[in-house]
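ok trying again, last paste got cut off:
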Amino acid sequence: MEFFDVVNSRRSVRAFAAEPVEDEKVISILKAANQAPSAGNLQAYEIYLVRSTRVLRALGSAALGQVFIASAPVALAFCAHPERATRRYGERGRRLYAIQDATIACAYSMLAATALGLSTVWIGAYDENKVRSIIGAPENQIPVAILPIGYHAEQPAPASRRNLEDLVHSI
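nice, full thing came through this time. structure:
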């Protein structure tokens, strides 16, 4: 797919087909995440690859009852790793750059999945402590996003967007 086709065709999908995602595609998505820009190239984030149905169900429960997460064959949980950014950037690295690094990596993963014919949805509503416990992340990591990935079982219509005139402020 051409880049703008990928951007324009990406949808938030909450129903996934009961079809596994090929290992090669998962690796390609993870490689794309690894190419995401990060503050000082510190990559102040960690990615947890989840394939276990039991863990996917637990994540759905921790995500305030978003049980559709368990219908995806794969999910990636992105955690900020503030200590990696703090060493170079102090408080701003801890508070902001690590979060930005994790979100950019997740966005790259979403676009890579779309380019590979897969669907995703960004999950940001969850109990952080429960997610951390479920994926086995240490206390010093902050769950930032859960990204279920799979083949779609629904084809949502494009979401409406703000007009550029309302969004962009020329200075």
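cool. Strands lie at 45-50, 74-80, 119-120, 142-150. The two ends are 34 Å apart (CA to CA).
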